[in-house]
Design brief:
The complex is a heterodimer of chains A (293) and B (257). Chain A is mostly helical and 293 residues long. Chain A is built from 12 helices and 2 strands. In chain A, strands 1-2 form a two-stranded antiparallel sheet. The longest helix of chain B has 18 residues. The chains are: A mainly alpha (293), B alpha/beta (257).
């Protein structure tokens, strides 16, 4: 039971990050590696703010904005300086490593405060009778709020334009809009969500580590691919919901691998092997469809 | 209305492959004209459209729309007053968005894409009416993704979307070339109807000499970056396909084709 709840908690927190990757990978069609830097950036900002006694909800907002700034930088490098998408992300990812160290001043920061968004006086009282699912429920609420806001945004005019730019850049130009600008906005929102995920993660594990971002992209992509493939033909389940479920399934697979005797040190290996398996499985399905056609 | 003045365009400038496409090219199109442009491959037809729209830069000269110099304007800025339909039906629509969503973004062209509702529900009936004019049954498929439509249906939608908001100019870049003959005829008739209804100034590039003769009120033949033939309305009505074809062959022989 404990493992099960742990998987759900982790899945939902990483799900917030995966929603950001859903924007870049599925909507913008932009392989954005910035996330490996913006995820720990959200955590770094949060660690520093919480240590200084800042309200944890405010820390969420500041992390969100910091992530957006990172996304804007990647966007500017790609759009204005005309650097290839993959390289723009790599440049920012590398730069963010040092920036994160600058923010915290240390390689890792433990949090000793009792005030986080997941555990504070108000929430503790509300869950006094069932403390074991407290973090899970709060994480669920955060993930759902983000999901609903994202769904709503994607139905606005600006959201339509974002979807259009990933679908067919030419049409955005035809609509007399600067496609570069739309891409920058998309990257800003995506990285803001990733940093928000990092912030929640940091508050949950009460710890910041500068290397916690390694593999963020892979975890997020795996979640997106699992979720969107499972619910590919579903008309009821929205892609954003699918991504959250994908993230939980992914964390479930990792937990299963560890329960079979693999150690925590093998984590990144599990991550990448699992990712590889997922990619290969989804490719296989595509081929079969073609074969039948 | 539209003026191209002393346009120069070189490709691969400064290399051994340097090629001069336009050297002091001039063209002026009057308000309400429907110009058909024909010419062999590489004669500069599509380059001319790209120059007007700002998709490619020029090395010299000026472009004016309604006496306003737009040479330095970016492509997306020019598109406020220009509608364009491409040869590839996939270029004019968003495949992963529904018909309704596509119509909505086209309807919002030139306005701010803010945080308001993407689809204005009050406009849905108008979209349906517009789609009904196409006679393709698209009005009943509003929530279907455009990617699942056929090339002809998509091109019809692209035409509708390009002309939905008030524009000065319609640019048609071989927009029937990728369609089967019957669908091409349908799209061409539709184009003519839209152009006449909305009184649009139009430039149409085509390889179909029949369309070039039948539609529009001015005919231009391009060759090596020059307009070697320019027939206005009266002359054009007397022109037959055979005449154009003969001229075409002459050019081709010169080129050694």
């Amino acid at each position: 039971m404990g493992i099960f709840i742990g998987v759900l908690e982790q899945g939902l927190i990483y799900g917030v990050m995966a929603l950001g990757i859903y924007i870049t990978y599925k909507i913008l069609d932009f392989p954005d590696l910035t996330v490996d830097g913006s995820f720990p950036m959200g955590a770094a900002v949060t660690a520093v703010l919480l240590t200084k006694g800042v309200n944890p909800y405010l820390a969420l907002l500041v992390s969100f904005l910091a992530g957006a700034a990172a996304g804007i930088c990647t966007g500017l490098i790609h759009v204005k300086l005309k650097v290839r998408d993959l390289l723009s992300g790599i440049i920012m990812m590398t730069a963010l490593y040092s920036i994160n160290l600058r923010i915290t001043g240390k390689v890792n920061v433990p949090l000793f405060t009792n005030e986080t968004v997941l555990e504070n006086k108000v929430v503790d009282e509300a869950f006094a009778r069932m403390p074991q699912i407290q973090i899970l429920i709060v994480a669920l609420i955060i993930a759902l709020i983000v999901k609903i806001l994202l769904d709503t945004y994607l139905k606005t005019k600006s959201g339509y334009l974002l979807r259009a730019v990933g679908d067919n850049e030419t049409i955005v130009t035809s609509l007399a809009k600067d496609k570069g600008m739309v891409k920058i906005i998309g990257l800003a929102i995506a990285n803001a969500l990733v940093a928000l995920g990092g912030s929640v993660m940091c508050q949950q594990q009460r710890f910041f580590d500068v290397s916690m971002g390694t593999g963020t992209m892979v975890i997020g992509l795996a979640s997106v691919i699992i979720g969107t493939n499972i619910f590919k033909n579903s008309r009821i389940i929205k892609p954003t919901t699918a991504v959250l479920i994908g993230s939980i399934i992914y964390k479930g697979c990792v937990a299963f691998a560890i329960s079979r005797g693999l150690k925590a040190n093998d984590m990144k290996l599990i991550t990448s092997v699992l990712f590889l398996v997922i990619i290969v499985i989804t490719m296989d399905r595509k081929r079969k469809v073609k074969g039948n056609a | 209305m539209l003026e191209l003045k002393n346009i120069s365009k070189y490709y691969n400038l400064g290399t051994v492959n340097e090629m001069c496409l336009f050297n002091n090219f001039n063209l002026s199109v009057n308000e309400g004209e429907f110009v058909s442009v024909v010419g062999s491959n590489g004669s500069g037809k599509t380059s001319m459209l790209n120059i007007i729209c700002g998709s490619i830069d020029i090395d010299g000269g000026n472009i004016l729309i309604k006496d306003k110099n737009i040479t330095k304007m970016k492509e997306f800025e020019r598109n406020k007053v220009i509608g364009r339909v491409y040869q590839n039906p996939a270029m004019g629509t968003c495949p992963n968005m529904t018909i309704l969503e596509n119509m909505s973004i086209a309807d919002n062209k030139g306005k701010v894409f803010g945080l308001g509702r993407g689809t204005n529900k009050e406009r849905i009936n108008y979209y349906k009416e517009q789609l009904k004019l196409l006679n393709l049954g698209l009005e009943d498929k509003l929530n279907i993704k455009v990617g699942s439509l056929s090339g002809g249906q998509r091109q019809a939608m692209a035409l509708l979307m390009a002309t939905m908001t008030p524009i000065n100019f319609l640019i048609l870049d071989e927009h029937t070339a990728a369609l089967d003959p019957k669908t091409a005829d349908l799209i061409m008739e539709l184009t003519d109807k839209v152009v006449k209804e909305k009184k649009l100034t139009t430039i149409m590039v085509t390889h179909n000499l029949r369309y070039a003769i039948e539609y529009g009120n001015r005919l231009i033949m391009m060759h090596q970056g020059n307009a070697i033939l320019d027939k206005s309305a009266d002359e054009k009505t007397k022109t037959k396909i055979e005449d154009i074809l003969k001229m075409f062959n002459q050019i081709s022989i010169e080129c050694g084709n």
